[in-house]
Write a structure and sequence with these properties.
336 residues; alpha+beta; Nuclear Transport Factor 2, Chain: A; 2 domains; seven-stranded mixed sheet; six-stranded mixed sheet; globular
Length: 336
């Protein structure tokens, strides 16, 4: 199977769905509500999208602040849309955990920077980047929490604010989103166990577990970095360089579940930069501690991972290592 070949499709989110009923399976109910919320967000219907959240719901950046409650979420959306008034979201991969009330979605986010975002004056430039929405839903099908992971470095580089290698404005992977709902099958359990073992193996510096899990032609779509990485040897080498730069790196699997041939995992990485990092462009170790998160989608084929999509906030790492000469900058973007 090619790394760019969709394995399961679903009607586009913009299509209208019938209202969920008590007889509709939970995952189907949640999907219908999510699709409606995406449509409201793309129309910039502030009241509609705020109503998708529980009264005390939260909207957070994976390595940033948290808005709690509908009023704060509304304020953040209004501020955001003043800066990028044509912003749209296009879901590309959506996975449902067992029970249907936790979802992980890879979303293409595009916009034109037409107004101020914090201290950033309008540049008129196009943005096209990847984000991951990790959502927990209430029993009433409202958003209890949404953790949004995206790379601020890509945003700032596309706007011309910083000069680092970065991805060009992104376009859709495929026309129709892939939607997969967990069934609790034995295959799902085996796949989840393999990814969990890989997480533990990286912490223990046992990359042979990774080598046994990834296919020889695996494609690593490192969406928080400037380009993809192809082939088992190159992917393993990438992680070797990360662990060499952070010999004490501890990796925690905070959320993980399998759905069909897919596994989603949300990880926290913590370590001290005591080694050089060819990946991060660190010639001399900084001695600084970093904490960051990754949101990752693994696709299995014949028992091995043949493709991996990963998103993290590279700017958060750069700031912690002081590679831009500053501890922090205003967040260029927040999306509920």
């Amino acid at each position: 199977m090619r790394s760019d070949q969709p394995v399961q499709t679903h009607p586009p989110a913009k299509q209208k769905q019938p209202a969920p009923t008590s007889k509709t399976p939970v995952a189907d109910q949640v999907q219908q509500v999510y699709d409606a919320c995406i449509e409201k967000a793309n129309r910039h219907d502030v009241g509609g999208i705020v109503g998708c959240f529980a009264p005390n719901g939260t909207s957070a950046m994976s390595d940033g602040g948290t808005d709690r409650g509908r009023d704060k979420i509304r304020d953040s959306m209004i501020t955001l849309w003043k800066g990028i008034p044509d912003m749209t979201r296009l879901p590309q991969i959506m996975l449902f955990a067992p029970g249907g009330r936790t979802t992980a979605t890879l979303v293409l986010e595009t916009a034109t920077h037409k107004g101020p975002i914090g201290p950033l004056a309008a540049t008129g430039r196009r943005l096209g980047m990847w984000g991951v929405q990790l959502i927990n839903w209430t029993a009433d099908n409202l958003i209890a929490s949404n953790v949004h992971t995206f790379d601020q470095a890509t945003v700032l580089a596309q706007l011309g604010v910083i000069k680092i290698p970065h991805r060009p404005v992104a376009s859709a992977l495929w026309g129709k989103p892939i939607v997969v709902k967990a069934t609790g099958s034995a295959t799902e359990k085996r796949n989840l166990a393999k990814v969990t073992a890989m997480t533990n193996g990286m912490t223990a510096r046992k990359l042979d577990v990774m080598q046994a899990t990834l296919a020889g032609d695996v494609a690593f779509h490192n969406l928080g970095g400037p380009s993809d990485i192809h082939g088992l040897a190159n992917v393993v080498r990438f992680f070797e360089l990360i662990l060499r730069a952070f010999p004490d790196m501890k990796i925690d699997q905070l959320t993980a579940f399998a759905a069909g041939d897919w596994v989603f995992v949300y990880r926290r990485w913590q370590g001290t930069n005591t080694g050089p990092s060819q990946v991060l462009g660190v010639a001399k170790p900084t001695g600084r501690r970093v904490t960051y998160h990754t949101a990752e989608f693994y696709r299995f084929d014949n028992g091995r991972v043949n493709a991996l999509w990963s998103v993290n906030d590279r700017l958060h790492i750069i700031q912690q290592l002081r590679l831009l000469g500053a501890r922090s900058t205003a967040n260029p973007k927040r999306t509920p």
